[in-house]
Known about the structure:
Blueprint: H1 3-12, H2 14-19, H3 21-36, E1 43-47, H4 55-62, E2 67-72, H5 75-86, E3 93-97, E4 108-114, H6 123-131, E5 134-145, H7 153-161, H8 166-170, H9 184-193, E6 197-204, E7 207-209, H10 212-220, H11 225-228, H12 233-249, E8 254-256, E9 259-265
Parallel strand pairs: 1-2, 1-4, 2-3, 4-5
Antiparallel strand pairs: 5-9, 6-9, 7-8
Helix pairs in contact: 7-12
Keywords: Methyltransferase, Transferase
GO molecular function: methyltransferase activity
EC number: 2.1.1.-
Amino acid sequence: MNPDQAGGVFTAARQEFARWSARLWRPLGEIATGLARPMPGEHVLDACCGAGASAIPAALAVGPSGAVDAVDVAEGLLAEGRREAAALAVPQLRFLQADVLTWDGGPYDLVQCCYGVFFFPDMDAGAARLIGLLRPGGRFAVTTWLAGGMADLVPIGRAAAAPERPELAEAPRDPGPSARIDTPDKLREWLSTLGLHGVTVHLARFTQPLQPDDWWTFLLGSSMRGFVAGLPDDALHRVRSRFLDALARDGRDTLDASTIVGIGHRPA
Length: 268
Ligand SMILES: C[S@@+](CC[C@H](N)C(=O)[O-])C[C@H]1O[C@@H](n2cnc3c(N)ncnc32)[C@H](O)[C@@H]1O
């Protein structure tokens, strides 16, 4: 997804994304930040920060002597993050609208990126650029979905929308870059290939029981929203029915958001 598309899709998704913050994004952001361990006084870049799920815990961890640049293309999600942060008195946290692939702040002690690298048009080049913003010895922390969980929903969402959007049926069905980093071994190998040292990888099992209405809100609050962008209400209704029917046929009553967090150091 190019940065303009990501900005449009996630800004449109603002309301539904925010409804998932407390149940999904924020607890996962706290897990990721707990593993990346920002320390008091550190300078952190939270790349693809969304509504601040990991940027807010990072800002609390670095404290007033540190700084967190939270960068995202989606102004709608940044507005949610600013709204939440306002209640916390964290002046060390700045929400900034930018394509993080052209961001030139730093040098940072820690660059963290939760569920963002697989949106980059070139995942390897994008990650290398983020690593280049670290001071020597700084940490790069990448959070991604475990195989067999979240990513399995995308083809179901695409198939539900395809009858309304023929271009979706024609699009190539390759699994996309997330499949290159969807196991602990693959993520470790990828981070090592990027030249990082001392790579550690952690697996966090995370599931949520779901009702049918939750599934639809989830689709509208995620990148799958791009499948239904611009459809009129009657077409949306048909996509919703197909999506929920397919999930019911699969016997899915749980959202599996199990996650892998990989951390490596830029060589000193
Ligand atoms: C699945 S959301 C995750 C948001 C957040 N990290 C979290 O865990 O809640 C992915 C985010 O990546 C952002 N994004 C994708 N490509 C980007 C880019 N090139 N520059 C900045 N943000 C980007 C999207 O706008 C979206 O907010």
